[in-house]
Amino acid sequence: MRSGIRLGGILGIPIAIDYSWFLIFALITYTFFLGYKDGFPELGSAGSWGLAVATSFLFFVSLLLHELAHSVLARASGIPVEGITLFLFGGVSRITREAERPGTELAVAIVGPATSAILGLLFGGLYLLLRSGTPYLAGACQYLMFINFALAVFNLMPGFPLDGGRVLRAVVWRVTGSYSRASNVATRAGQVLAGMLVLVGIVVILIPGTDVVQGLWPIFLGWYLFSAASASRRQLRLQELLQGYKARDAVGRSCPTVPQSLTLDILVEGYMVPSGCRVFLAASFGEPRGIITTRQVRMVPRHRWREVRVESVMLPLDSIPSVAADENAYHVLELMASVDVAELPVVENGSFIGLVSREDLLRMATTRSELGG
Predict the structure, then answer these.
(1) 118, 235, 296, 350: which has the fewest C-beta neighbours closer than 10 Å?
(2) What is the C-alpha separation between 344 and 319, in angstroms, rounded?
(3) Full-model pTM
């Protein structure tokens, strides 16, 4: 999820808002407005809108704190975190590598709902303090109390990718000693939970006199959870297929070397098109200097290909994160996703030995799957 608006960072963790967030913010604000307008007519329309916007803002601050708790503890446990994104269904911490121990998995998973529960208690305390003097502010705190408690309870439901699904995975992992088996159990539970939510939504819609919107929310949530759980199962299968393979096993399979002094027209017509290769290692006097791909070529207008050289648009090797030759192949894929590249240099004993590409790693996994791996 890379689309959206970057807001900055908290404790070194980048924060972003996906464009879909604006839709849910508007819907929630309108819902709060209707509640305040009916419950506190003395506020008037302007006051109700103002309080509704403030309540929605605090609601999303609560979501952000929930995800920030996950991210901070993950980083403290040595797990890389790419950032936090708020989107249509709430928020997500973009953790780029799974925990290596069940205890770490359990701690990172449980801290989010625990944070929401604490926020629920804080808003509950404010409600008690304000209900006699400023009932409309007390009403806002009451809403936020219930929302945070609901957020904690919902996230603890035992289905991946919810926090409760990660708790379930940690427990099964600890009992069985198998991360793979635990992940299968948690993702399958997530799919079952998603199906139940969709069924509940359909039943609600079919009840005479019920607002259709009340049934659409569980259906949308069920669809999202099922998609996320299914994607996690595919990732798990990919991890299993690459088990035992290292970065060195895929080095140099589809990355020929070209002189960095070539112009782009010669590169395209003489190398890329005839070979069908989309990635080349650019070298100077036999020494690797950078990577040139179709992506870099497309960034240059076609009419300039005859004058622009490879060295002007290539990605210098020293600007790209490198991986050790004995790095786990699946971890290499995770790193590629986190830095948004399709190729990475591979080094052994401090020396460059070649490139590993996403395409070759996926081809290895596909071949192993076809052979019954």
Answers:
(1) 350
(2) 10
(3) 0.72
